[in-house]
Write a structure and sequence with these properties.
single chain; 191 residues; alpha+beta; OB fold (Dihydrolipoamide Acetyltransferase, E2P); 5-stranded mixed beta barrel
């Protein structure tokens, strides 16, 4: 005759599993006996316009209609930028051997990729101030038409004529009245 296939370890595991099942059924019966009932209605919670949790539903007369199109999801939209505008910046990084670098824009501190093919001046180095335009590339905005920034020359504004006693009178000016006459030699001899 063969031996029984049940060993001591198997019997203990089976007893433990039956005990857990029995405890679980008892806890379920206890919860059911102590519950208030009402089902889903007791589980609902309401939230007011300030985010506070309430037990009573909100007043339907106080409901405010919201325009669905005015709701912005995610990041706010940037205003449309003019890509052809000339921008100023500084070369933040440039590798002459690989032929690319990055330009940091002066106003926004945004970095833009620049390739050697997009440069007008060939002798640019890190730290140089440049002017450039933007162009949409496969991985974002690229700086193109990059050239060294030149300090604008001041515009010379002509000075207004100085008012003299002759000009202050309401005389009509003629070309002869504008010509200054040199002092006469007789005036010099009188000294």
């Amino acid at each position: 005759m063969g031996r029984s296939q049940e060993t001591f370890g198997k019997k203990e595991k089976e007893k433990k599993r039956l005990r857990k099942r029995k405890d679980k059924a008892e806890k379920k019966a206890e919860r059911k006996a102590n519950s208030k009932g009402g089902g889903l209605e007791n589980m609902l919670a309401y939230v007011d316009e300030f985010g506070n949790i309430l037990e009573t539903p909100p007043d339907p007369d106080a409901r405010v209609e919201v325009d669905v199109d005015s709701i912005e999801l995610g990041a706010t939209k940037r205003p449309e930028e003019d890509l052809n505008a000339v921008r100023e910046g500084k070369i933040d990084y440039y590798n002459d051997q690989k032929g690319y670098g990055f330009i940091k824009e002066a106003g926004t501190s945004e970095s833009f990729f620049v390739h050697i093919n997009g440069m007008i001046d060939d002798d640019l180095n890190e730290g140089d101030r440049v002017v450039f335009e933007l162009e949409k590339g496969p991985k974002g905005m690229n700086a193109v038409r990059v050239k060294r920034w030149k300090k604008p020359e001041p515009v010379k504004v002509p000075e207004p004529p100085v008012a003299t006693e002759e000009n202050s009178e309401n005389k009509e000016e003629t070309p002869e009245s504008k010509v200054e006459t040199p002092p006469k030699e007789d005036d010099k001899k009188e000294d």
